[in-house]
Amino acid sequence: MLKQTMCFIGAGSMAEAIIAGLLEKQLTVKENISVFNKRDQSRLQKLRQRFGVRCPENKGEAVTSADIVFLAVKPKDVHDAMAQWGPYLKARKHLLVSVVAGMTTSHLETYVEEGVPVVRTMPNTSCTVGQSATGVAPGRWAGEGHRRLVEQLFRSVGTVVTLEEELLDTVTGLAGSGPAYVYYLVEAMEKAGIEAGLRPDIARQLTVQTLHGAAEMLVKTAEEPALLREKITSPGGTTSAGLEVLKSRDFTGVVRDAVFSARNRAKQLSEELTASPVK
Ligand SMILES: NC(=O)C1=CN([C@@H]2O[C@H](COP(=O)(O)OP(=O)(O)OC[C@H]3O[C@@H](n4cnc5c(N)ncnc54)[C@H](O)[C@@H]3O)[C@@H](O)[C@H]2O)C=CC1
Ligand SMILES: O=C(O)[C@@H]1CCC=N1
């Protein structure tokens, strides 16, 4: 259990997913978490009801008194949020943990006094169920202890890789956005099942369990995905017939393009954010 207090700037999907995971894994207690947003009181009310976290009126005080400050606003709002809350962060007190896609640590550092440790991360919404795949990149003022603390935080809600910051855009394209690709696949499989005669609830049950089972096979057997695929594929059989369609439509190329497109958008966001005026 961590003793540090935490404050979330931003009360959206990511803040909710991380809070859910941290509390579920008992890495902290609800009394140690405060969260605020721009203005949506009903959203805060929902988080307060669901988790029992603090939603203080005095936002500046919430930032000042926290040890770990999570930045969980949309990229378009990051300048305003950092201009507003950055001056409250102090080098000897705070650790700033950003989940903002495309926002570099060096750019975040320009909003806070020299020495404030900043760690950039890219989790995904599976934090909610303790199954995120999170990339972590420490900034110039973040020491070994800060890196370890952030790894511990995100390990409580999934797996963590620490890497050079320039690779975080790739992590974003693959793992940050990744769950959306999987959900899209689920939607497509369900739709096909229904069109081929299954009841919607049965199509849902079969699709979700098929994905769950396949993911667990990958994790528990640690076998190569290609080998697992081959074990299902009898020559001239049904799987082969299905896979032929995916191959003929360049499934691999389509997925590659999706990951690269998301990665490139993250890079573009970085450029746009860096080009914007600071302070
Ligand atoms: N949704 C996802 O799957 C993932 C999102 N991210 C990143 O997480 C960040 C947040 O994304 P979501 O939670 O999806 O966004 P969201 O739109 O659900 O939530 C953003 C929150 O920020 C608040 N906010 C905006 N300006 C503010 C300010 N000046 N002061 C205080 N609060 C302010 C809004 O009121 C809102 O509560 C984004 O930068 C995104 O790139 C990272 C990984 C995955
Ligand atoms: O779409 C987005 O911008 C965010 C970043 C990673 C996942 N969702």
Automatic annotation (TrEMBL):
The record lists the membrane-crossing segments as none
Task: Supply the EC number(s).
Answer: 1.5.1.2
Cellular compartments per GO CC: cytoplasm
Q: Which reaction does it catalyse?
A: L-proline + NAD(+) = (S)-1-pyrroline-5-carboxylate + NADH + 2 H(+); L-proline + NADP(+) = (S)-1-pyrroline-5-carboxylate + NADPH + 2 H(+)
The Pyrroline-5-carboxylate reductase dimerisation domain is annotated at 165-269
Q: In which pathway does it act?
A: Amino-acid biosynthesis; L-proline biosynthesis; L-proline from L-glutamate 5-semialdehyde: step 1/1
Tell me the compartments it is located in: Cytoplasm
Predominant subcellular localization, coarse grouping: cytoplasm
Keyword set for this entry? Amino-acid biosynthesis, Cytoplasm, NADP, Oxidoreductase, Proline biosynthesis
Amino acids binding NADP(+): I9, G10, A11, G12, S13, M14, A72, V73, K74, P75
Boundaries of each Pyrroline-5-carboxylate reductase catalytic N-terminal domain copy? 6-102
Q: Which GO terms describe its molecular function?
A: pyrroline-5-carboxylate reductase activity
Recorded hits in PROSITE patterns, A to Z, give: P5CR
One of its GO biological process terms is: L-proline biosynthetic process
Q: What class of enzyme is it?
A: oxidoreductase
* HAMAP family reported for this sequence: P5C_reductase
State the similarity comment.
Belongs to the pyrroline-5-carboxylate reductase family.
Function as written in the Swiss-Prot or TrEMBL entry: Catalyzes the reduction of 1-pyrroline-5-carboxylate (PCA) to L-proline.
Q: What name does this protein carry?
A: Pyrroline-5-carboxylate reductase
